[in-house]
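Exercise 7. Predict the structure of ATPase AAA-type core domain-containing protein from Phocaeicola salanitronis.
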Amino acid sequence: MILKIELENFFSIKDRIRIDFRAANINTALARNLSYNVMSWNGVPVLKSIGLFGPNASGKSNILKAITFCCKMILESHLHNEGVTFNFEPFKFEGFGNKPSRFLIDFVCENVEYEYSFELTRDRIVRESLYHYPVGRRAKVFVREADGKYSFGTGIIAKPMDVALNTSDKNLFLSRASSMNRDVPQKLYRYFMNQFLLGLVNVNDLIVLDSFKTYKKVILKALEICDTDITDIEVRKEQIPAPVLPMPGQTELSFKLVDVLRFKTVHRNQSDVMFDLDMEESNGTRKLFQILIRLLDVVKNKKSIMMDEFDTGLHTRLADFILDLIHASSNNQLLFTSHNTNLIDVKRLRRDQIVFVNKSEQGATCVYSLYDFKDFRENMDAEKGYIQGRFDAVPYVDSSVESIRQILEG
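Solution. The predicted structure, encoded as tokens:
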């Protein structure tokens, strides 16, 4: 479970922004009607979903990109050797290129809250810290200072200095400690590997097979609810040729056979004819199937997931269905971006679930929620207000015929 995420100095993100899953204190009739949008942890109300809305180039995808970068550093940085340059760019203006970037994730793993953060430049890790709340009070697990010195909580990580001595300025201590079989770091590593999912999967990958077999009945029922006429889906393994990278001095491209999954669909009133999901079904049906494969794993196993423009190619009612799927389950989370203004609806999402992303005059991404507009009343039309620019995070496009003619004639 994610409680909050803070990001700073990453691509268009300049000053610290926060994505806060801890629910605001909203005690209105509409909010009470959306009680299923909120779960509880240790008496703290936590949002099941947050939607990021805003114009193109405002930084919505950069927020998800920053979170992905943070997670990949945790999972992969123990493999980094000398000479590695971290694959990101800091904010380019006002001297921020010389300042460290910062990432913080406050999350719950095995019913204990952890607060993990690190700072780095493109060349080195500067700071890192991990705190936990084992009995409701903040306690140190470890702190890594800019001068390379460490301090540790008592008895939490076995032989921590052995790990520190094997951690370079290219490695996160948390990642290195996990690779050296320390219990708490391994537990958190598995959390980021298995419980915090970054986007969708390729449905042709073999890893999808177990999920499909487990959730086939639910997928078919969901497809029925979504008004497709698919009544059955079968899956089989096939081998296809895939190109192999040539060896030095080799000029001819070679191929090898790899295993993939092929899904075949059966439609109502056409039970004797099978259709290839990839080749013969609509883009919307393929996208819905891909989302269901992923989300059913999320809702059944209490995971968190991020999806960039999850509803692209889907009818707005299918987007509604996907959010209903998240909200109907007991303990899972979705962070998504969208251009679908129909979702900016206080009868579907609480005001603190509707988050706007905009870019300042200095080109920096800023984040704020509908809840921050204290003059907004829930009997107002939030979608209409957004389109009219009341919340700023909507593009202004002068698309009149006259203005376009001037461009063409210029």
